[in-house]
User: Fold this.
Amino acid sequence: MKFAINKFLLASVLLAVAVAAATAGTLPTTVDVKQGAALQSRGALLIDVREANEYTEGHVPGSTLIPLGQLQQRLPEIAGYKNQPVAVICRSGSRSAKAVKLLEQAGFSAAVNVEGGMNAWRKAGLPVVTGAASR
Assistant:
């Protein structure tokens, strides 16, 4: 019970910091995997910018697959998130950093890179599922 309360408090604090930072226009451009998971659990869109075969091998439950090479063309699909938190993940954090820059240039005000990507996500013991993206 105490652990559940502490976990809830941590998630609440992370969300409050993210909301306050977004409101102030100073949302960090990078978050760690636990902060990324907390953002997603509070309704943030989590975009995986790896290729479909990488995604099939293991991805964050509830994430949306939009490979980096398709992101520009698929921006209309996620336009409703322009003023909401969007977390972006890849294998290691490199492609997702490029995706965050592209999102910022397209007017997304609260896009963040999940530092370390799926490598760090797995290492942290966070949930991973396999299988193809549903569309």
Observations:
- Residues 2-123 form a domain with the Oxidized Rhodanese; domain 1 fold (CATH 3.40.250.10).
- The CA atoms of residues 49 and 68 lie 5 Å apart.
- The helical segments are 2-24, 33-41, 52-57, 68-74, 94-105, 117-123.
- The mean pLDDT is 87.
